[in-house]
């Protein structure tokens, strides 16, 4: 693993050095990109000079003071990054100076090249390493993971006042005395109250109608009740009256049915009409038959044609 790390750093140093040597910029590419954005943003600002080293930059509802000698701005962007902000670029352009001269030295190309000027020495293989006296370096211990779901709650101290009981946590009740919800006495709850039977608690009403269960009736009682009703009807004469009304209703129903049949069948029988034939030069063609109850609709804007009727031939007498 040590040899792999050395090979990675060795290639990284010369690749970055060669990449920067091919660029023609005075500063590194990332700093140049930030500076270009500040130059574009500076077009929206106006600047005022106090005649010495301080400039007042206004725009976008803000006003900042810029000091070119100290290379600082009241927005503190230039102070923290070392790259002129939009306010600083506006003041630099007002003074007719070069913007790259006010960038911090750590972003210059020369500084970058000096950092990557040194190279690492090549490490020989493990077979050529010399033995060194001392304790052998052991790998770190592998902690075995316990079974089950890991605990999320930490172990609390006794002075914290919270005791964990299963999944829930409860506060210690040593300083607080519990009272019963019924008798308001100490030492027990309402579930274990000795006088619980004295306090009648009405059951909660359920929504909707409750179906009342009807008791099952005895078949012998129903038979006896029917017999008593029949005897009472015979004594009062209600049974005979009911029979007479039923017979009268049957007779009236038969009479109405007969009258209805007589009205519907009183000589009203549909007979087929004789077929009318149309006379033409080629022969006779019968018209389409229609039911007498269904009238034919006359066609609109059509002239009537003359139709010749004839009588059917009579049979000859022998």
TrEMBL record:
Which residue ranges does the record annotate as region Disordered? 200-224, 265-318
Can you name one GO molecular function term for this protein? zinc ion binding
Organism's domain of life? Eukaryota
Biased-composition ranges, Polar residues, are: 281-300
Signal peptide positions are none
Domain (Zinc finger PMZ-type) spans 71-98
* PANTHER family (UniProt xref): POLYPROTEIN, PUTATIVE-RELATED, TRANSPOSASE, MUDR, PLANT, MULE TRANSPOSASE DOMAIN PROTEIN-RELATED
What this protein is called in its record is: Zinc finger PMZ-type domain-containing protein
Its taxonomic path starts at: Eukaryota, Viridiplantae, Streptophyta, Embryophyta, Tracheophyta
């Amino acid at each position: 693993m040590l040899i792999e790390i050395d090979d990675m750093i060795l290639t990284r140093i010369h690749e970055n050095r060669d990449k920067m040597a091919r660029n023609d910029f005075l500063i590194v590419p990332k700093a140049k990109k930030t500076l270009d954005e500040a130059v574009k943003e500076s077009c929206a600002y106006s600047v005022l000079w106090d005649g010495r080293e301080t400039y007042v930059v206004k725009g976008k509802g803000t006003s900042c003071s810029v000091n070119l000698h100290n290379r600082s701005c009241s927005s503190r962007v230039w102070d923290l990054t070392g790259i002129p902000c939009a306010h600083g670029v506006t003041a630099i352009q007002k003074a007719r100076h070069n913007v790259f001269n006010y960038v911090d030295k750590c972003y210059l190309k020369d500084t970058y090249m000096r950092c990557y000027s040194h190279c690492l020495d090549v490490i020989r293989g493990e077979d050529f390493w010399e033995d060194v006296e001392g304790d052998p370096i052991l790998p770190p211990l592998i902690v075995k993971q316990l079974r089950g779901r890991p605990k999320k709650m930490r172990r609390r101290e006794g002075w914290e006042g919270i005791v964990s009981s299963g999944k829930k946590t409860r506060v210690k009740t040593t300083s607080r005395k519990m009272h019963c919800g019924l008798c308001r006495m100490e030492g027990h709850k309402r579930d274990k109250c000795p006088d619980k039977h004295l306090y009648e608690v009405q059951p909660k009403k359920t929504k909707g109608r409750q179906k009342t269960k009807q008791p099952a009736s005895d078949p012998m009682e129903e038979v006896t009740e029917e017999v008593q009703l029949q005897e009472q009807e015979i004594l009062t004469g209600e049974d005979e009256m009911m029979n007479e009304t039923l017979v009268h209703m049957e007779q009236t129903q038969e009479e109405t049915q007969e009258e209805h049949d007589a009205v519907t069948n009183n000589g009203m029988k549909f007979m087929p009409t004789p077929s009318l034939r149309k006379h033409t030069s080629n022969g006779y063609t019968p018209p389409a038959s229609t039911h007498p109850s269904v009238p034919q609709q006359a066609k609109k804007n059509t002239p009537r044609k003359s139709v010749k009727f004839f009588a059917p031939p009579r049979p000859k007498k022998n």
